[in-house]
Write a structure and sequence with these properties.
Elements: H1 6-35, H2 47-52, H3 54-69
Length: 70
């Protein structure tokens, strides 16, 4: 059975820490979304559009249209 190198052990330690941090962050975000009862993203949601700031304008237009229809 081959011995593990020190570089491989170091990589796995860092990878494990990264994985734990990533999963922990996802769990906190999920719990916060459930706690604050955030609304779901619309069907036509685009992450790229959200980064560009298009989503804020679209969301504002939707809210205006919904308030006018009521």
């Amino acid at each position: 059975m081959p011995k593990s190198s020190d570089a491989a052990k170091s990589f796995m330690k860092k990878y494990d820490r990264f994985t734990i941090a990533l999963c922990g962050t996802a769990a906190v975000a999920y719990a916060a979304a459930k706690y604050f009862d955030l609304e779901d993203a619309p069907e036509d949601f685009s992450v790229i559009g959200w980064f560009k700031g298009d989503y804020d304008a679209v969301a504002a237009e939707r809210r205006d249209a919904e308030s006018k229809s009521k």
